[in-house]
DNA sequence: GTTATTTACGAAATCGTTTTCGGAGATTTC
DNA sequence: GAAATCTCCGAAAACGATTTCGTAAATAAC
């Protein structure tokens, strides 16, 4: 390991006091431009940069923000969160903060990950996603008074900062689109019920039905996990109904993938006989059969923005002004019933 | 923020010296079992755990290992690396180390990410993937003498620890399979040439040709990026040849996805008229049209193992004994020419 | 019963930084 | 020209842990 120089040796080399050098490096006041320049040059020359350990000890900050990947694992075998991480990192790398990530193992032990993060690692801030209607993570963080920002809103606790890609509009617009095509019985394959996005999706779904004066039929909505297999099973249940849906709105592209599989199993053509719409714009959507119509999810940008919000929060801004709801946009491919589209819809 | 207790206050409460408390907490010798138990109980009661900043300052370690995501971004909109991270984290969470991740922006600035990691953050170890035949990252880390483990081997520098999911066997076995089906002209759609996996894939490809006494035709191998679009374009070039391949081996499932698209464009049926095999077992492979035959890539396990190797290296073990080459296994679906399989192959 | 050895604990130094406070010199004000 | 105000820099005190080394008591050896 190459020999490192510390701030006192650097100061000695310069014939200055350590305090002066420190102030120069951190661009605090009380040091002339001339010496500041001199210090910076010397630091560059000797390859000096302050040891984080020393600085953190003194300033009582960890310069660290933690991101916890939600369980279960299969949910994250998904480009979504990697994009999010990329966005977070890109923004964070412009700051002194570093990003540490931990993975919650199961729903039960997930809180332990949070505890380790704040009580042992002492992170300065926390980020996470997949908010739930009733979310113990939020309660914990608010109780400990640690700054955090979530991907998704929640019904839990006091106001907190979030970026929310609004599932309500996906549910409403997707369903409305099917209704516009003449469908009367529309299936909803939702993500797990405890998730906030599931609740919002169903709200949008109901709103669209109501606007069209269509009845709500509880048989038509089934909650599944966020995977292809679970989407497959959910769709099978839907299709086995005595009066099955003629179109299916899905809470996630992976679910939609399974759903199209289930439709094909019955000998019908997904996207033609039974149209399907997903959510979150999975990169392989265009390569499915048929190409999947879906709603956008600008996760990279969401990651960037979450960092902005967290920084603002730590800067003293109030949580209420740091809440953003983004509307996803419909991405038309062909699984939603392209023959109608071809007939003049676009 | 809840009031924290530090080690001197804890010691005062116990009527012990700080040194004794410290030794008890870290289970170093020189403290009786009785007082050790007493200290541990008190620590639990007061919710004390040592401040990482203080400990790191004193011990001159960062207790941090860094993972750098390779550029370009599109390569990572891929479950592969998320699984790897999950594996790494699962193993690392059993140790005092924390995982910090950074994303290399471009190939040019990637080294800066490494430099920031070791020279500023002062991580104790580094991990990364997508090794290259000539890899400046390896040179840098070896020169600085920082412990690291890579996903993939390389031709660069002195021996270092790695886990390598052997692309040679994918190239060889995939190609041999096609040859066994009677194909004489087999296309190879490889990942970018600078990557080690590309080199190994081609080696395997050539080996299979040689074993079957088939000629090598440079026109039949084209290197593309690791994305669907690039796979699409690469396959178009292959299919536009005057004497085009009758089967295509791909260095990646995303490439294979694009290739099947390209085949369909020409009016032929991918997997039937022109069989295709990919690599890395993308979770959506089974849902492509046709379902994609591919090679396994146990990335979660690889992540776990990489942590073992890194820890062993930091523990003084020699790099040479910390190199593992894993053979991927063929996962038969139907894109490799299922009609032949149905005819008795399985 | 004396001496040698072990065992258990404590005092103090140390890691590298930031920050407070004070003061000398330069500059402005009246 | 004296007083007041700025500018710039330095000495020293934290921050919270670990580790070395010394020493008293307890045990073992003879």
Structural class of chain A: alpha/beta
Regarding quaternary structure, what we see is: homodimer
CATH homologous superfamily designation of the largest domain in chain A: Response regulator
Order of helices and strands of chain A: HHHHEHEHEHEEHEHEHEHEEHEEH
In CATH, the architecture of the largest domain in chain A is 3-Layer(aba) Sandwich
Q: Going across the major beta sheet of chain A, what is the strand order?
A: 2-1-3-4-5-11
Instruction: Figure out the total of helices of chain A.
Output: 13
Biggest sheet architecture of chain A: 6 strands, parallel
Q: Gap between N and C termini of chain A, in Å?
A: 63 Å
CATH topology of the largest domain in chain A, by name, is Rossmann fold
Stretches of chain A where pLDDT falls below 50 for ≥5 residues?
A: 340-346
Task: Provide structural commentary.
The structure is a homodimer of 346-residue chains. By secondary structure, chain A is α/β, with parallel strands linked by helices. Chain A has three domains: 44 residues, 434 Repressor (Amino-terminal Domain); 130 residues, Response regulator (Rossmann fold, 3-Layer(aba) Sandwich); 147 residues, Rossmann fold (3-Layer(aba) Sandwich). The first copy, chain A, contains 13 helices and twelve strands. In chain A, strands 2-1-3-4-5-11 form a six-stranded parallel beta sheet, with helices on both faces. A four-stranded parallel beta sheet of chain A has the order 7-6-8-9, sandwiched between helices. The first copy, chain A, has a two-stranded antiparallel sheet with strand order 10-12. In chain A, helix 1 packs across helix 2, helix 2 packs across helix 3 and helix 8 packs parallel to helix 9. Chain A is elongated. The first copy, chain A, starts with 6 loop residues before the first helix and ends with a helix. The interface between A and B is large, with 56 and 56 residues. The structure holds a DNA duplex (30 and 30 nucleotides).
């Amino acid at each position: 390991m190459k020999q490192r120089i510390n701030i006192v040796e650097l100061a000695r080399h310069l014939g200055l006091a350590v305090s002066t050098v420190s102030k120069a490096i951190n661009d605090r006041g009380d040091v002339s431009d001339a010496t500041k320049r001199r210090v910076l040059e010397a630091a560059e020359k000797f390859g000096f940069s302050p040891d984080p350990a020393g600085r953190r000890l003194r300033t009582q900050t960890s310069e660290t923000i933690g991101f916890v990947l939600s369980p279960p694992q299969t949910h994250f075998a998904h480009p979504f969160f990697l994009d999010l991480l990329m966005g977070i990192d890109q923004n964070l790398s412009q700051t002194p903060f570093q990003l540490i990530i931990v993975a919650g193992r199961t729903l039960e032990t997930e809180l332990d990950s949070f505890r380790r993060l704040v009580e042992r690692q002492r992170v300065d801030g926390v980020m996470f996603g997949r908010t739930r209607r009733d979310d113990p993570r939020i309660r914990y963080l608010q109780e400990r008074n640690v700054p955090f920002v979530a991907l998704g809103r929640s019904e839990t606790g006091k106001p907190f900062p979030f970026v929310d890609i609004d599932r309500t509009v996906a549910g409403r617009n997707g369903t409305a689109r099917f209704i516009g095509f003449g469908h009367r019985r529309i299936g909803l394959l939702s993500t797990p019920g405890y998730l906030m996005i599931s609740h919002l999706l169903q709200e949008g779904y109901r709103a669209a039905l109501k606007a069209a004066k269509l009845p709500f039929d509880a048989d038509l909505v089934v909650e599944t996990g966020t995977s292809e297999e679970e989407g497959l099973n959910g769709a099978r249940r839907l299709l086995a109904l005595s009066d099955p849906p003629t179109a299916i709105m899905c809470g996630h592209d992976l679910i939609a993938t399974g759903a199209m599989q289930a439709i094909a199993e019955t000998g019908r053509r997904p996207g033609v006989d039974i149209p399907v719409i997903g959510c979150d714009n999975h990169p392989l959507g265009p390569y499915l059969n048929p190409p999947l119509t879906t709603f956008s999810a600008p996760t990279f940008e969401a990651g960037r923005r979450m960092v902005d919000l967290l920084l603002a929060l730590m800067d003293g801004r109030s949580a209420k002004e740091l809440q953003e709801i983004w509307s996803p946009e419909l991405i038309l491919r062909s699984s939603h019933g392209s023959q109608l589209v071809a007939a003049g819809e676009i």
